Amino acid sequence: MSELRLAQLFHDTYERLAPEFGYETRLETRTFDPESSNGRLMLAVCKELLDLGYVRHYGEGTVKIAKRHYEDLLRSQGRLEYLEGHGVDNWEGYADAMEEFERSGEW
Question: Which helix H or strand E contains 14, and what residues bound it?
Fold first, then answer.
């Protein structure tokens, strides 16, 4: 996400929420202008927040999880690949277990 996009989102959200808090924004700054001194300041703040990693945009369909949980998922995936590579998917009961797993709806 660019500092311009973040500044625009911040400004639009600020303008939308201001009345709910009994605040009336200034008429001359109700439209975001990145060339104004206020706009340049907001861009500089947004750039710094992005550069420092305080603001991140993960996008649609992306989740954020703890590193430990991510590592556990990778290990489980690796374990499954090794088992299937050694024929576990041909073992008696494997197909039944997979059907039960899919029906459980837990995952």
Answer: helix 3-17
Six token digits for residue 32:
């975001």
The structure's pTM equals 0.52
Q: Are 34 and 41 in contact (CB under 8 A)?
A: no
Q: Note the pLDDT tens digit of each residue in 43-53.
A: 999 999 888 88
Residue by residue, DSSP assigns 66-82 as: -HHHHHHHHHHHHHHHH
CB 46 within 8 A of CB 55: yes
42 closest CA partner among 3, 74, 81, 80:
3
pLDDT over 90 percentage in the chain: 32
